[in-house]
Structure prediction request, 348 residues.
Amino acid sequence: MQMTFRWYNRFDNIPLEYIRQIPYVSGIVTAVYDIPVGEVWTKEAILAVKQPIIDAGLTFEVIESVPVHEDIKMGAPTRDRLIDNYCQTIRNLGEAGIKVICYNFMPVFDWLRSDLAHKLSDGSTCLAFDQQTILNMDPSVSELSLPGWDESYTKDELSALLECYKNIDHEKLWENLEYFLKKIIPVCEEAGVKMAIHPDDPPWSIFGLPRIITDKSALERLVSIVDSPCNGITLCLGSLGCSPKNDMVDIAAEFAKRGKVPFVHARNVYITKENCFEESAHLSSSGSLDMYAILKALYDNGFDGYIRPDHGRNIWGEDGRPGYGLYDRALGAAYLTGLWEAINKSKE
Ligand code: DNO
Prediction:
């Protein structure tokens, strides 16, 4: 298990030196943020991101994310050129020492929340999702973006995109994902890079858009599209785990056993009612997930990939990027490392 930490490079105000001081954190997870979605990440741009990380004594082996252009998700006629670009980015990343690429196949929106600063009883704030608030929102009349998304859209861009997706149902989206994977996985095999799809967050359809990576059977289907160690998943506990239908211990065990989990996003969620949740502190006692049992399932099934604490609360007066401040994620990393040590020692 390699403990990593997400960092938004020159767009992040957390110094790398601070991250280096979190016990056991050895690597940074980040991306090239200034190349438009769909264009090739040049070697120069990748190395410019890598150098300060190496200088700080950390490793740079996981990318989150190389965003997938909407034309690929929609199966538009332009997709072949965009997939060629994606393949070139994979090759360039492989040459720069990258081992895992996290990506997602969610139409238009990446993760979605109704509140970025939901107040908890201890005075901290967290990300939260309330289904009713989302149902009352109309994306075609507002500009939507979240800190941490790869793209934000103007009102007009959003309306146009939503219109295009009217013709794309779940099966069509699966077909387009299959087309994409069949082209890129052979390139990954040559480049020595593993793809790790991020589940849809939250794992149900929003604004009438199809969402497909939502449960165990979807993950089964995904890994069977191309049977390769390079076709894996980012096991995001909070994304799948905010639906009580997803048994996270079982999912962790199953896909770790099959060597399909190169990357884990470890965070807890507290399910307040159906389709509503708060992003709690990482501890099992704070949320709805049994973090010990999930980590044990990973350990027992040979997990040896990268893991990172995920969204943290804003605590101790920090005014951090929602979900991505320093303090609570550092607490999360220490907690996860402690669990891992205890599991490891219990086997001796
Ligand atoms: C949210 C993240 C996601 C994730 C992408 C991966 O905080 O977990 O934005 O980076 O979905 O492509």
User: Anything to note?
Assistant: Residues 170-191 form the longest helix (22 residues). The pocket of D-mannose is lined by residues 64-65, 102-104, 110-111, 148, 198, 236, 265, 311, 323 (CB under 6 Å).
